[in-house]
Amino acid sequence: MATTAAAPGRTGAPKKKKQGKDSGRERPLWHEWTRSLNRPLTSYYLILASSLLLIGLGLVMVLSSTMVDSITETGSAFSMFQRQLASAAVGLPLMLLAAQAPVWIFRLIGYPAMIVSVALLLLTVFHGTEVNGAMRWLEVGEFRIQPSEPAKLAFALWGANILARKDELRELTEWRHLLIPLLPGCGLLTMLVLLGSDLSTSLVLLLIFLALLWVAGAPGKLFVAMFGLVMALAAIVIAIEPFRIERVTAFLDPEADPGGDGYQSLHGLYALGTGGLLGVGIGASREKWGFLPFAESDFIFAIIGEEFGLLGTVVVLGVFGVLGYAGLRVAMRVKDPFARLAAAGIVTWIIGQSMINIAAVIGLVPVTGIPLPLVSYGGSSLIPTMIALGILLGLARSEPQAARALAARGPSRVQRALSWLGLDKTSAPTDERAAATSSGRTTRAPRRPGTRGTKTTVKHSSGPVPAGDRPRRNRRR
């Protein structure tokens, strides 16, 4: 019989790998999710999806929380919901149009938007309508608007344009260029808003101001000084108004005055506690039957917790977290200084306002009377917020990888319409230049006459090579 000798170093025949369903799975699932975040348009779709989810949730909750009051006031359960739906119908096309517009348009509208906001706030101070002790509203025909809401967007765009222009001129190395005229502009808006007894909106404007300074690279000492100034201003404003001191006292011990200043905070906690883990069901809230004041606006998060439970509130927090993550991702990935500053300002406004509202409902801060973005009732808050999210979508499209992916698809219908109007010509060279820079490609300048005999350097795979060290071709021996 023939025998076979085993090769040295081997004890036997090599083992074959098992072939099965799981043989091709080499990476865990979380790694695949991480890889999916690196796609060119991830920021765009995250912002779009989270925005639409919050808008849809807001419509549902406004309908649920306003049915009782609508029947009492108008006899129809859908009157307030129809107004909110009309505001969403106006804001959605504006949001989509802003998402398709070039970045230079957002930079262009900063100054006029700031001027209009100051004019409207001045008009509100002298000819505004007082509601619940606050002069925040301005009646225009049959409509009632709150000028402080679009002022947030105007200040974010104006401040981003100011700092971006100074960054282009290399003037942000001195503290006076960081603060002037940004600080006077923020101070003017804050003063006009405070004249209408609106401390919460003033805090949001100051948050946008601090975010712009942070992204612009303000020194640590200057940022700490401005933060201390903001806190001191808030303390002074609270101390000079008796009703704000009462709110702080009720926040510290709401059970001390359950029928007065602590009434709203206690019933907001009752609503959250009644919801439990899964809630009492959509439309089945008990607190909206005249027990919880402003259930459709300031305390709509309490109604969400009552009807959808702890699980529903966690989902809402998660959606806001996704929106904040996507917005900060845009601010980190874009190359244009204005786009970076504007994205940071808008995200700070929306996420900061949502955190203040939710913290007031669950009892972490005093009641401020600020709406939950995209969810609370009110067209004055919904429409500017939707426009701001549209601008954030447009900034997400200007990311270098996203710009290249969209250029490969070709122009969209909105971009073709803008090009017919002559509004999209300026953005094309900027986007192409940014895409070329991010990919490492450079454009060779045209040869000028009279430069043939000068010593230059050429690019090589290992770096630039001096003219005297380059090998000559067809050298005579």
Structure description:
This protein is mostly helical and 477 residues long. Helix content is 62%, strand content 4%. It contains 18 helices and 5 strands. The strands form 2 sheets. A 3-stranded antiparallel beta sheet has the order 1-2-3, with helices on one face. Strands 4-5 form a two-stranded antiparallel ribbon. The longest helix has 34 residues, at 300-333. It starts with 28 loop residues before the first helix and ends in a 12-residue tail after the last strand. Mean pLDDT is 83; it is low at 1-12, 16-24, 425-462 and 465-477.
Helical coverage, percent range: 55-70%
- Largest sheet, described in full? 3 strands, antiparallel
Shape: globular
Order of SSEs: HHHHHEEEHHHHHHHHHHHHHEE
Instruction: Give the integer mean of the pLDDT values.
Output: 83
Q: What's the count of strands?
A: 5
Number of helices: 18
Structural class by helix and strand composition: mainly alpha
Cα Rg = 29 Å
Percent of sequence in beta strands: under 5%
Q: Distance between the terminal alpha carbons, to the nearest Å? A: 74 Å
Provide a compact summary of the structure:
With 477 residues, the chain is mostly helical. The protein has 18 helices and 5 strands. α9 packs antiparallel against α14, α13 runs antiparallel to α14 and α14 packs antiparallel against α15.
List keywords for this structure.
single chain; 477 residues; mainly alpha; three-stranded antiparallel β-sheet; two-stranded antiparallel ribbon; 62% helix; disordered N terminus; disordered C terminus
